[in-house]
Amino acid sequence: MAGEIMEGGALQGRAVEETLDELSGYDLRIIQPRHGYRFSVDPLLLADFAGVRMGERCVDLGTGCGVIALLLARLGENCSVAAIEFQQVMAQIAARNVMLNGLGDRVEVVEEDVVSVKSRFPVDSFDLVVSNPPYRRPGTGKVSPRAGRDDSRHESTAALSDFLAAAKYLVKPSGRICLIYHTSRLAELMAQAAQQKLAPLRLRMVHGNSRMEARMFMIELAKGRSGELRVEPPLMVRGEDGGYSEEKMRIYRKVEKA
C-alpha cells in the first residue's frame, strides 16, 4: 500500500491504536486500526466496477471501516448507502468515518450480521448491492496475530452462500449485485449463484501484471432476469515498466479518465 494511501499518523486516546489515512482523489479521510484489518486496493476497484448511478439506494455487506460505502457516496450523486458490519469495533470506526467525511446524511452504518439483514430491511430495498466478502474458509490459511484481521478475511458467522442470499434478498429485480472475490473460489461462486438463481452478467479478472495469474475477480450478478455473460478485458494493477497501470491511476484519480 505504500504510496497509495497517505498515512496521517496514529490517533491517540483509543483502546485500539488507529491511523488516519487519506484517499485524496476522493477527498476522503479514513480511520483504520493500525494492527487490525486494513483495506487495500480492492474496495477502490469494486467501487469503480459497480458504477453507482445518480440517486441509487446502495448497500455494502461487510463494510469494515466503511471505505466502500464512502466511495459510493462520493461517486454517486444523491445516492444513499447502508453500510452493514457485524464487528462492533469496526462498525463504530465506520460510523466515525462517515461523520469525519461529512456524509452522515447519505451513509448509515448498521451493526448487523449479514445472515440477519431480513430483520432490518424489506425485500427488494436496494438498487445496488456491493460486497468484498471474507474469502478464506474457517481453518484455512495462516492465522493472523492481529486482532480483527481473521474476522475480515475468514468466514465466521456468514459464508459465501449467506452473502449471496442476503444480496438476493436486498436487491431489486432491476438492480445489480457486484462483488470482488478471490479467484480460487470463482467456480464455487458460480455454482452458488446458479443455485440461488442469480445470473452472472459481467466478469473481470484482476492481475498484478500481464505475466501474473489473476488473484481476484469482480462480478456483477442479477436476480429475476437473464443475460449472456460478458467477460471484460483484464485489469492490470501494474504496467510493463513495473509502475502502476494507467487504469489503476485513473481509479485512484491520479489521471483523468479518457
Describe this structure in words.
40% of the residues are buried. The longest helix is centred in the middle third of the chain and has 13 residues, at 88-100. Strands 4, 5, 6, 7, 8, 9, 10, 11 and 12 form a nine-stranded mixed β-sheet that branches. The model is unreliable at 1-7 (pLDDT under 50). It contains seven helices and twelve strands. The protein is of the alpha/beta class and 258 residues long.
> Could you state the order of secondary-structure elements as H and E?
EEEHEHEHEEHHEHEEEEH
Overall pLDDT level: 88
User: What is the strand content?
Assistant: 25-35%
Tally the helices: 7
Q: Please give the alpha-carbon distance between the first and last residues.
A: 25 Å
Helix proportion range: 10-25%
Number of strands: 12
What structural class results from the helix and strand content?
alpha/beta
Give the biggest beta sheet: 9 strands, mixed
**Stretches where pLDDT falls below 50 for ≥5 residues?**
1-7
General shape = globular
Radius of gyration: 17 Å
What attributes characterize this protein structure?
single chain, 258 residues, alpha/beta, 9-stranded mixed β-sheet, 3-stranded antiparallel β-sheet, 7 helices, 12 strands, disordered N terminus
Describe the structure in brief.
By secondary structure, the protein is α/β, with parallel strands linked by helices.
Question: How would you summarize the topology of this molecule?
Answer:
Layout: E1 6-11, E2 18-23, E3 28-33, H1 42-50, E4 57-61, H2 67-75, E5 80-85, H3 88-100, E6 107-111, E7 126-131, H4 149-153, H5 160-170, E8 171-182, H6 186-195, E9 198-207, E10 214-223, E11 230-231, E12 235-236, H7 246-251
